[in-house]
């Protein structure tokens, strides 16, 4: 599946993330931010457009209703960040840490998670369209009651991920691994799995598979 990549200008202005903290309408655009530490803060409705953010730490920061468009995060730590009701479009997370990151009720489209860690992240009631999780760790991630459209999980760790009330129709998880999932039979209808995973699912619902 091809997704739209971020549209980022070839020349960007260097900015500091703290520059926006006191602005009435926090906005960063056409900029590059490197090495920022913006942790344990709270700033609502931040708008970031056409930007590259590298080697930054945002741990435990409240970014509720954040709007991200055409942004690339590289080697950033967004652990326990609140992105509730965020709008995230044409965004890449490359080698990022998003442990415990919260995305409930967010709109997420044309987004790539590449070689990133999302353990314990929460996406409940979010809408995801054209999203790729590539070689990422998603153990104990909560996708409860999400709307999926054109989602890929490529060689990911999905152990103990929750897909309750989320349809996996047309979703291919055959290259990913898990020991157990929280998922209903209705949610699995139309999901693409490997033969080994089919046996795993059979055992989860109590079937005994004989050779």
UniProtKB/TrEMBL annotation:
Transmembrane segments: none
Domain of life from the UniProt record: Bacteria
The name this protein goes by in its record: Pentapeptide repeat-containing protein
The species this protein was found in: Oceanobacillus locisalsi
